[in-house]
């Protein structure tokens, strides 16, 4: 086992053997890891989570996060991975590591999860873009296995059919669970026989989906399928998440029931900031990170805490800047902030004084933060 501070959190790594490696498309592949009996408890996970993988790339140590496509009941760790460029770190992972090799893999993490409700009748809708299908696949396998009364709808967007990954697994699920799962494929750069399935998954496409697919509900003649939606899962690029999350919200889905996972750095708010705050200038900020104390002055509170610290070149941990990943989680030890929308902190954590620096507006002349939570 090895420990390392990474993105503001202490992660425990373990050596795992690559049991299977498979090229899926020209720029995606999958890895399956063998979990030894003595590490079974360390690698228990929930559907929708990810693991960090530490490996060598061009002579340097790299740590990347990859979502699992496996479901907890399968008893294995399977990852879906996209190679973004021939020179990138992930390309090195594909080229240099093969079946039988050992890699350092972090224990499962992430909060793109859903509570299991096997005795309830639920309707869950998911939107995925490209490699964003990975945690959604984990969720769907898990729900179909554990929730006999839940029905699922997947809207999966790709540039073309050549780039569509895990189609065999998805089609198998649809064939075996056709009464509870429907899958619809969309292509943004490939003409389709039915024009409906051509184009990006966005607000306009969602309106069509609601009106033409999620309309008549066989289980309730007085409402539509969309009216019955309990949870929405969205995974992909930031702009897609922002567009669809807001569209779902404006179509009546409460924000607490819209869950999203980001697959890239994204600097915008997912939901627009609807509050106005009194202007405060020359704000004193003290914070602790990796045992070291820092102090600075923020010119005002027009921008959020994380963004201002990054402008001043402080090495604070972050990934998304959108309240999704939790990398910038810290405790507020003094002062007052307004925590805007976030997809990460629990009510208990907020009650303990935890905040996300990327979603916090300062409301006092001085604040004191501690990023060393582990």
Automatic annotation (TrEMBL):
SUPFAM superfamilies linked to this entry = 2Fe-2S ferredoxin-like, Ferredoxin reductase-like, C-terminal NADP-linked domain, Riboflavin synthase domain-like
* Keywords on record: 2Fe-2S, FAD, Flavoprotein, Iron, Iron-sulfur, Metal-binding, Oxidoreductase
Q: Where is the 2Fe-2S ferredoxin-type domain?
A: 283-374
Q: Which Pfam families did the record assign?
A: FAD_binding_6, Fer2, NAD_binding_1
| Cofactor(s) needed for function | FAD
- FAD-binding FR-type domain location is 11-115
Q: What is this protein called?
A: Oxidoreductase
Q: Which organism is it from?
A: Chryseobacterium rhizosphaerae
